[in-house]
Amino acid sequence: MTSSPGLPQWDAFCVLLPNNDAAAEKDHFPFLRSVVSLRRGVSREAWPICHISHKKRHNGRMAHAPNRRTVVIVVFDGMKLLDVAGPAEVFAEANRFGADYVLKIASVDGADVTTSVGTRFPVDQTISDIEHADTVLVSGGDDLVGRPIDPQLVAAVRELAGRTRRLASICTGTFILATAGLLAGRRATTHWRHAGLLQRAYRDVSVEPDAIFVRDGDIYTSAGVSAGIDLALALVELDHGSELVREVARSLVVYLKRAGGQSQFSTLIESDAPQQSALRRVTEAIAADPAADHSVRSLAKVAALSTRQLTRLFQSELGTTPARFVEMVRIDAARAALDAGMSVSDTARQAGFGSPETLRRVFVTHLGVSPKAYRDRFRTAARN
């Protein structure tokens, strides 16, 4: 392939698959099988299936790369595939525009791992073999939540933290950092569904449940799954500036900076049905008519309890107050109305906020965006 005069030539990163995983081709989507492992060179156990840019060459010679940065992604059995593939694509795409990232995939024992979707994912080396890395990203997985984490993985990450310039976690990877004691006295975030558990389990961590990602010194934590892409973009911007990262975001067709926090993408009411029948009557009444009078006094009458008893029941069963629960239901109702194309004023009335001003104040406080901005960016119905 010839290149235009004056333009740099590029070597290739390869997306690699183990030869012995050929059977998986019949059983899984090719995309899921072939998601990113960016390696230097091709081993005998793997073969390249596509190219993405890697090292700049000028006039056929390797250019000196003083700004080469090694990025290590820590993986394990059950890790979320998108936690790795999303950030990896960001760094690979940045190489197309002049960056020089070298991506390595590492596990505790150096063996390939099984992802959350059941595919095998190739690993480059053991975590202990990493002498130094510019950036370490710790992936997440469902098995990290609510159960003991592999102590070898925790110890390996703790030791690796001392050999990197900056450390980051994606989604529930935050639990690995917290278990390793790396987040003590720091601010952090994780997937919105598990933020409460993270705060209860690690009292010395200041959890920010609505943040897309949080930086505290040289440690970064991101929210759920796709937020790893946001974090990777932010890291590239720190390394190479806004112009390059803007090109990366444009090429990947993603927002450079999202408006609002992660709760805008979640169902705010994510609790199980209350065990107490009295509380169930109350929550069902609130959900059935968010705009009705849902003061604590009126809700206590529905439950046939005192206001104090009802408040205690909300705390023990749902971990929140009656007023906060009502507000969350109303926010959900407002989001649904805006998604359907309803006007801001009609939404405020139907969801129980009364006025557009109150609705706007609540949206900005909890979602980080105005109702109009939310409707314009996130609604699923056609715009008015």
UniProtKB/TrEMBL annotation:
<protein>
    <submittedName>
        <fullName>Transcriptional regulator, AraC family protein</fullName>
    </submittedName>
</protein>
<keyword id="KW-0804">Transcription</keyword>
<dbReference type="InterPro" id="IPR052158">
    <property type="entry name" value="INH-QAR"/>
</dbReference>
<dbReference type="GO" id="GO:0003700">
    <property type="term" value="F:DNA-binding transcription factor activity"/>
</dbReference>
<dbReference type="Pfam" id="PF01965">
    <property type="entry name" value="DJ-1_PfpI"/>
</dbReference>
<dbReference type="Pfam" id="PF12833">
    <property type="entry name" value="HTH_18"/>
</dbReference>
<keyword id="KW-0805">Transcription regulation</keyword>
<feature type="domain" description="HTH araC/xylS-type">
    <location>
        <begin position="280"/>
        <end position="377"/>
    </location>
</feature>
<dbReference type="InterPro" id="IPR018060">
    <property type="entry name" value="HTH_AraC"/>
</dbReference>
<dbReference type="InterPro" id="IPR002818">
    <property type="entry name" value="DJ-1/PfpI"/>
</dbReference>
<dbReference type="InterPro" id="IPR029062">
    <property type="entry name" value="Class_I_gatase-like"/>
</dbReference>
<dbReference type="GO" id="GO:0043565">
    <property type="term" value="F:sequence-specific DNA binding"/>
</dbReference>
<keyword id="KW-0238">DNA-binding</keyword>
<dbReference type="InterPro" id="IPR018062">
    <property type="entry name" value="HTH_AraC-typ_CS"/>
</dbReference>
<dbReference type="InterPro" id="IPR009057">
    <property type="entry name" value="Homeodomain-like_sf"/>
</dbReference>
